[in-house]
Write a structure and sequence with these properties.
HIT-like, hydrolase, HIT family hydrolase, Histidine_triad_HIT, HIT family, subunit A
């Protein structure tokens, strides 16, 4: 899709993001909106509107990264549970038409889905970068590949 898609720009390195993990087919970065600290998005680097149009190789890379990020989020930002979700289409709540999975720490009774996405706080870039650094370190400790691909 190119320059009009914010996630394509992030994947290309032309838009700012607090990157947690960057690999050839997928990347993870801290969401701007943090209902709870540790909310991360995982995307394919190739522009894919939603899960229905993703090829198997990209799908495998994205889901492996979702699994790795979910472990890092659980360890570094422990909650009582976790939500991992992907919305399809505007009616389904998809705001950016580029496939992305949310990995989000949860707490009993937190009410997140009653208010999301309107109420989450928007931390400054330094806070988002700090969250990303913590998760990168957690990935290293778990043996994951978390360094950006050049």
């Amino acid at each position: 899709m190119g320059t009009e898609c914010i996630f394509c720009r992030i994947a290309a390195g032309t838009a700012p993001a607090s990157v947690v993990r960057d690999e050839p087919l997928a990347m993870a970065f801290v969401d701007l909106r943090q209902f709870h600290a540790g909310h991360v998005l995982v995307i394919p680097k190739l522009h894919v509107p939603d899960v229905r149009s993703m090829d198997r190789e990209t799908g495998a890379a994205v889901m492996e990264m979702v699994s790795d990020v979910a472990r890092a989020v659980s360890d570094e930002f422990p909650g009582e549970g976790q939500s991992i979700w992907h919305s399809v289409g505007e009616a389904g709540g998809q705001e950016v038409p580029h496939l992305h999975f949310h990995v989000h720490p949860r707490f009993a009774g937190d009410g997140m889905f009653r208010v999301y996405p309107d109420a989450p706080r928007l931390p400054d870039r330094a806070t988002l970068d700090h969250y990303a650094a913590r998760l990168r370190e957690r990935g290293r400790a778990d043996g994951g590949s978390v360094e950006p691909v050049q």
